[in-house]
Write a structure and sequence with these properties.
Strand content: 5-15%
Biased composition (Acidic residues): 77-87, 347-362
Helix content: 25-40%
Order of helices and strands: HHHHHHHHEEHEEEHHEEHEEE
CATH superfamily of the domain at 344-444: Phosphatidylinositol 3-kinase Catalytic Subunit, Chain A, domain 1
CATH class of the domain at 344-444: Alpha Beta
Radius of gyration: 66 Å
Biased composition (Basic residues): 147-156
Number of helices: 12
Distance between the termini: 170 Å
Number of strands: 10
Strand order of the largest sheet: 2-1-5-3-4
Biased composition (Polar residues): 12-25
InterPro entries: Rad60/SUMO-like_dom, Ubiquitin-like_domsf
Largest sheet: 5 strands, mixed
Domain Rad60/SUMO-like: 368-443
Length: 449
């Protein structure tokens, strides 16, 4: 092999010029761009350790490269690659690494090597035998455990019904029982009738026992009058007359009949009347003989025997009637007094004759009127169509027993007959009111005494 030729020496002038140019470039720095200046300003924000030299920085770089190479994993599948060479940038010497332990594919987790854990397979037949043996040992029966076989299959109960007992056998058993236990005669039912005992005549009782015996005989023979003790019959009929508002001419006067118990309150009666009239029960007002009746009352507390009549209206109508009932009619200027007019006796005689004519039942055109007031009870009068309203008022006062309290000598103002909220004049015949048999009228102007 021929010897290698030596390199040609470089030109000194060129090297000197290059050195001069390089020194000039080093001496005269190039102008930095805006980007470089901006980066330099950003680098100034970071702190640098000025005490470290370039040698120290090389050492640190070498250590950093060595640590990064140490943690690299060789993933080659070659079995002979036990030793790997790590090239160091500074030294270039190979370094030994620990021999990595080869993992076997058949290695199992540590918990699988635990002896205390027993694995049972659901499809293994021997496991069922072991479980069965455990249950047999719990029964403490050595005979079953000695068998060591499988548990015998349990048989279900037979669904076949038992044989039917013949009817002849049932009849024979019944006859035997009837003959053994003969039927005793049924005792007579006790009666409520009191039977006189002949032996009671010879027995002398104490005063208390004798009084009890007398009461028992009287109750049996004569019977106790329970209705008198209770205040009347158990069922009471209440006839309710509905009073419409006087300013409502389209409404009608209806009469309803209800049946209630004697000692029951009127709560149910109030509800029934309110439903029939189509109003609320709290706005219903019920009156009896001029007095207001509340729902807490009973027929017995009102001393009603078997039948009673009551008036019903709503609260507005009741207040209207009460206000107009308390109002006094204007004084009659032309009304003749008993002292100044000599014809007063003639008028009194005429009123008496009218009252007598009202009681005449033989006339065909006579009809009944129910006259009411806030002071007295209702009075039923028989009148003719030609009877004047003043005569009806005087007959009502006489029948109520208060005629002496409203004589013309005491006051010029007197009671007036009111039909449907309108006052009737004294000389007006009752036929102008167009009333029928059983209608109700009111007498207004009465005062409480």
């Amino acid at each position: 092999m021929p010897p290698r030729p030596r390199p040609r020496p470089a030109n000194r002038q060129a090297s000197e010029q290059n050195a001069a140019s390089s020194s000039m470039t080093r001496a005269v720095p190039l102008a930095k761009t805006d980007r470089e200046m901006e980066l330099d300003k950003g680098d100034e924000f970071f702190l640098r350790n000025r005490n470290r030299t370039a040698k120290d920085w090389k050492k640190l770089d070498k250590l950093a490269k060595g640590e990064s190479g140490y943690f690299q994993v060789n993933q080659s599948s070659d079995e002979d690659s036990d030793v790997e060479e790590l090239s160091d940038a500074s030294s270039g010497t190979p370094r030994k690494r620990r021999k990595a332990r080869q993992r076997d594919d058949n290695d199992l987790p540590r918990w699988t090597r635990n002896v205390d854990i027993s694995l049972l397979a659901s499809d293994d037949e021997s496991d069922a035998e072991v479980i069965d043996m455990a249950s047999q040992e719990a029964d403490d029966s050595p005979s079953k455990a000695a068998r060591g076989g499988k548990r015998p299959r349990s048989r279900s109960k037979s669904l076949t019904p038992p044989p039917e007992v013949p009817m002849q056998q049932i009849l024979n058993v019944r006859n035997v029982i009837r003959s053994a236990f003969a039927e005793l005669p049924r005792p007579d039912s006790p009666s409520n009738e009191y039977v006189e005992d002949s032996t009671m005549d010879s027995i002398v009782l104490d005063e208390d026992l004798a009084s009890i015996a007398r009461e028992a005989r009287a109750r049996v023979h004569h019977g106790g009058d329970l209705e008198k003790k209770r205040g009347g019959p158990e069922n009471v009929t209440i006839k309710v007359h509905w009073l419409p508002h006087p300013l409502n001419p389209g409404s009608s006067n209806d009469v309803w009949s209800f049946v209630t118990k004697r000692h029951d309150t009127f709560h149910a009666l109030f509800d029934e009347i309110a439903d029939t009239a189509g109003i609320l029960s709290r706005s219903l007002v019920l009156t009896h003989n001029g007095s207001r009746v509340f729902a807490s009352a009973t027929p017995h507390s009102l001393k009603i025997w078997a039948e009673a009549q009551m008036d019903a209206s709503d609260l507005v109508t009741f207040q209207y009637l009460r206000e107009h009932r308390e109002e006094r009619p204007p004084p009659i200027a032309n009304a003749p007094s008993q002292r100044s007019s000599p014809s007063g006796s003639a008028e009194d005689g005429e009123s008496e004759s009218d009252a007598q004519s009202m009681a005449d039942d033989d006339d065909d055109d006579v009809f009944k009127l129910v006259v009411r007031s806030a002071v007295t009870k209702d009075v039923i009068l028989k009148v003719r169509p030609t009877t004047s309203c003043g005569a009806i008022v005087k007959a009502f006062l006489k029948r109520a027993g208060i005629a002496d309290q409203y004589s013309e000598s005491r006051s010029l103002r007197g009671p007036q007959l009111m039909v449907d909220g309108e006052h009737m004049k004294a000389d007006t015949p009752i036929s102008e009111a167009d009333l029928e048999d059983g209608d109700q009228v009111e007498v207004d102007g009465l005062q409480y005494h």
